[in-house]
Amino acid sequence: MSVARVGPLKLKAQIFCGDEPAIGPGKADLLEAIDCEGSISAAGRALGMSYRRTWLLVDSMNRCWVERLVETIAGGSRDRGARLTDTGRAVLAAYRLLERRMVDAAAGDGLDPLTALLRDAPLPPATAT
Amino acid sequence: MSVARVGPLKLKAQIFCGDEPAIGPGKADLLEAIDCEGSISAAGRALGMSYRRTWLLVDSMNRCWVERLVETIAGGSRDRGARLTDTGRAVLAAYRLLERRMVDAAAGDGLDPLTALLRDAPLPPATAT
């Protein structure tokens, strides 16, 4: 799951291939779920996504990198096995490291001036005019 | 405008006050537009947002920080002047610096392993099953 929160900061990092997000928080979570579940459809269920949406995200990732990130293992059903390729593992690890570097760069001096000015909770909304 | 792009990387950093985004790329752009235009409604128009949406974003920012970020200058019309408070300037500057630190941390060693594996353009989508 996403590592990209520190205190009040939430980070979303996306790597684009042309106009298409090649990896971001959701796709990284999906790669981890496929690695854990050994199946694309089980990974989608674990993340609460439809099979079609899951499949589209996998297809998108498989088209944006020099090699596919996810490969299915021989068999015929939707629940047949799937696994990350070496490139899939490399992209996932590099993305998580990138997130970590950015979060680490934000922590402390970068975030403190904002945290110091932030309320604990928002005031109630004003009445709309 | 947003500084949070470097090569194929797009960064979205949000600071939350409870469940409410207290600042992020859109609100930072709005603060800059208000500073530039001297008016909330003119700033919204410059960014292609409705007056209502612009007003809601300003109200949200004004409720999340220890002091309001935007103040209106005496007068009665929608186009009366508005300006950033000292806190507004401090939050905007600290947020842009935070983005810059995160982007700088991503550049080079962090991003190169991903860029090396990224296609120049995605392959065409597979036929949906």
Layout of strands and helices, then pairs:
Two copies of one chain form a homodimer.
Chain A (H helix, E strand, L loop, with lengths): L4 E2 L2 E9 L2 E4 L1 H13 L2 H7 L4 H14 L5 E3 L9 E3 L1 H21 L5 H4 L14
Antiparallel strand pairs in A: 1-2, 2-3, 4-5
Helix pairs in contact in A: 1-2, 2-3
Structural account:
Two copies of one chain form a homodimer. Chain A has 129 residues and is an alpha+beta fold. The first copy, chain A, is built from five helices and five strands. Chain A has a single domain (13-115), classed as Arc Repressor Mutant, subunit A. Chains A and B meet through strand 2, strand 3, helix 3 and helix 4 of A and strand 2, strand 3, helix 3 and helix 4 of B. Strand 2 (9-17) of chain A pairs antiparallel with strand 2 of chain B, so a sheet runs across the interface.
Structural category of chain A: alpha+beta
Task: Report the sheet with the most strands of chain A, covering strand number, pairing sense and barrel closure.
Answer: 3 strands, antiparallel
Principal-axes geometry of chain A comes out as elongated
How much is the radius of gyration of chain A in Å? Answer: 18 Å
Overall number of domains of chain A: 1
Oligomer state of the chains in this structure: homodimer
Cα separation of the termini of chain A: 41 Å
What is shown here, in short?
The structure is a homodimer of 129-residue chains. Chain A is built from five helices and five strands; from the N terminus they run βββαααββαα.
